[in-house]
Amino acid sequence: MKQEIVTFLHSIDKDIFNLSKYIYDNPESSFHEYKCCSYLINIFKKYNFNVIENYINIPTAFYAQYGNGHPKICFICEYDAVENGNHITGHNLISSISTGAALSLSRVIDKSHGSVIVIGCPGEFIGSSKVTMAKQGVFNDIDIVLMAHPDVITAESGTSMALLPLKIVYKGEMGLRYRSLGSYSPLDACLFTFNTINMLSKGLKHDNGIDGVIVKGGTSPSLLPSECESRFYLRGSKMCYVIELEKKLRELVKTVGNLMEIHSEASIYELPYEELITNTTLSRIFSHNLKETGIIEIESAKDTLSSLSLGTVSHLVPCIHPYISIVEDDSIKYSSGEFAMATISRFAQDRVMKTAQALALTALDIIEKEHLLQEIKLNSLIIINSSAENVRY
Length: 393
Known about the structure:
- This protein has helices at 2-11, 13-25, 34-46, 91-109, 129-135, 186-201, 239-260, 280-292, 310-314, 337-342, 346-368, 370-392, and strands spanning 50-53, 62-68, 72-77, 114-120, 144-146, 149-151, 155-157, 162-171, 175-176, 209-216, 223-224, 227-236, 263-268, 299-302, 319-320, 323-325.
- The chain is an alpha/beta fold.
- The model has no long low-confidence stretch (mean pLDDT 92).
């Protein structure tokens, strides 16, 4: 069956490249990926997947399934672009890799058992749909979740940062600035908060970090704004540390409001992301299969300072999120315009097909060898429990 997977992948090489190119040529921002979602849905319908569109009432999400029963192997498609930045993070290739893996696995699943599932997950850059899906129980019946991310290096799946989005709003009375001497404005409170956070950030522990931006703060230098809003991403190596940081910021906001006699409020404005927990057994199997395709140089687990919505999923289902180099030129930087252009190169396409093959063969290993699935699930329990114990003590 492995040879059938490899042979079928070769036969759809052009289709997979056309998919990468279509998503690249039609960059759509988070939760507005209508063209790309439709293109993917049509592919899976063509290959007889049962497709649910407008999945969980998200217009650009879908759920595609081929086969029945367990194990249920899930591949993730992401297809949103950075607004005004095209596919500088290569989400067009995430969809291509997962599509190639799912289609090739579906060609042999009838000879064995289990299900091939593909979930189209829009909005990775803005409150990812994966987190919403996780909260709604979408992954509760899934056995394994597989995906791979394009990069400038090839590395094993590691960890990511937990993330909590916090919105801070100060409100007061609008008025002419020259007539309001001797009183504080919402903008004063906002700027004071930023300065304080910058000072406090120097003493943060557990790899915590705070990134913020003012999204509303007035329209004219001569007018005091009646409202000033800022938004922050609180990051940490574990969600429990981020929650402690959130508590401190809420206390700060309350104190600033009281000192300046300004109305203050703090609230979560997007769903938080938990840190990624990589299943090491699953990662080992994938790395072996990736080497079998000819991609030999694989760096050790990459721990990213970014936050991944897959982190939340990884607390429910065994997951991996390895990185695959799609560039030949070492000078190309990730998340650059040059990186986006590299996603439609022939070298990138070769890496896409080899990674799709490795993912499909990893899934086949799990389907054919029942003890592997048991080992993978036990590994996840041990890692999660160990992580909880380390936090406690």
